[in-house]
Amino acid sequence: MQLLAIIPMYLQYLFYLVAAIFITFQYLKYNRLHNYWKDRNISGPKAIPYFGNSLSLFLTPKPYIERQWYNSYGRLYGHYELGKRTLTVADPELIKQILVKEFDKFRNRLSKESRKIAPNMPKHLFNSNDDEWKRLRLIVSPAFTSGKLKRLYPL
After folding, report:
1. Which residues does UniProt assign to the signal peptide (predicted)?
2. Which residues contact residue 70 at a Cβ distance below 8 angstroms, ignoring those fewer than 6 apart?
3. Which of 14, 56, 81, 101 is the most exposed place for a label (fewest CB within 10 A)?
């Protein structure tokens, strides 16, 4: 006996309706996410549904795939890592502008969701926010003076 034969007809229609709504919602969500860089005229590798570009990152060492993307898409390209949008900047002048001149607009790099998942992540300089970043930077900065760096790596 078939499963659908014993379910009343209205429940079958309800099931099909819910399935159609779910599929439509997933399709719209996928399109919205994976057209983000395209809508902003930023080139990048084509994403695979539900994996983004992470599958190629898992199959090929990250430096090799990033070099390939750099050669294909230039110094600024967007890609997707497991549903998260990532912008890669390889232009030294633009990096300087982001990290030095407009630091106040790009200072908080770790999302609140990531902080809940990995509570130790914000405890280092690259992922700390606001006052915690300033405190850590004051502690770490004396170790990276030009004189100390020259002693570490003589030219």
Report:
1. none
2. 77, 88, 90
3. 101
* C-alpha to C-alpha distance for 77 and 9, rounded to whole angstroms: 51
User: DSSP of 72-98, one letter per residue?
Assistant: HH-SEEEEEETTEEEEEE--HHHHHII
What confidence tens digit (pLDDT) does each residue in 5-31 have?
A: 666 777 888 899 999 999 999 888 888
Rounded to whole angstroms, the Cα distance separating 81 from 83 reads 6
Inter-residue contact 33 to 83 (CB < 8 Å): yes
pTM for this predicted structure: 0.61
Q: Where exactly are the structural domains of the chain?
A: 109-155
